[in-house]
Amino acid sequence: MLTGVLPVLVSGCGSQQGTAEWGPDYVALAHRTVTGIAGPAAGVTIRGHVYRSACLPELQLFTSETSDETDARGNYTLLLHSNDQTSGQCLVLHRSDTGDSVAVSFASLPFSARFPEEEPRDSILIDLAAE
């Protein structure tokens, strides 16, 4: 379940590697908290798939995949990669513990930094809560 989406500015990034297949490589960050029925969900793998389409999986315009495991407080950070800098791309997040997924359109959030020459600036906050 998606409980919040809010663009903000950040100065850091996670340590995971993306799998963008061709350049140039633009990046954005997705981060926040994963919760279960009893509170923060630790040790959950969050996998993010980026598509260059507006959340239309049938177009299959796959750009990259990245993942992170939540910490003891349920926090995750995904460094997202794309070979396209425009807004309107789609992020699909999958959580390993429940199998749930959510699609989020980057309607107003473009991938902005050329990686690794520039630090990621843009971020989207996405809380994932168990139903």
Main features:
131 residues, mainly beta, Immunoglobulin-like, 6-stranded mixed beta sheet, 4-stranded antiparallel beta sheet, 10 strands, 0% helix, globular, disordered N terminus
3D architecture notes:
It contains no helices and ten strands. The protein is 0% helix and 51% strand. It has one domain: Immunoglobulin-like (Sandwich), CATH 2.60.40.
What's this, in brief?
The protein is mostly beta strands. 0% of the residues lie in helices and 51% in strands.
Low-confidence stretches: 1-20
What is the total number of structural domains? 1
- What percent of residues adopt helix (DSSP H or I)? under 10%
**DSSP, total strands:** 10
Number of helices: 0
How can the largest sheet be summarized?
A: 6 strands, mixed
Between the first and last Cα atoms, what is the distance in angstroms?
7 Å
CATH fold name, please?
Immunoglobulin-like
| Overall radius of gyration | 14 Å
Element string (H = helix, E = strand): EEEEEEEEEE
Identify the CATH architecture.
Sandwich
The CATH class, by name, is Mainly Beta
What proportion of the residues form beta strands (DSSP E)?
Answer: over 45%
Could you say which overall geometry the principal axes of the C-alpha atoms support?
globular
Averaged pLDDT: 78
How are the secondary structure elements laid out?
Elements: E1 2-9, E2 26-36, E3 39-40, E4 45-51, E5 62-69, E6 75-82, E7 89-95, E8 101-106, E9 113-114, E10 122-129
Parallel strand pairs: 2-10
Antiparallel strand pairs: 1-10, 2-3, 2-6, 2-9, 4-5, 4-7, 7-8
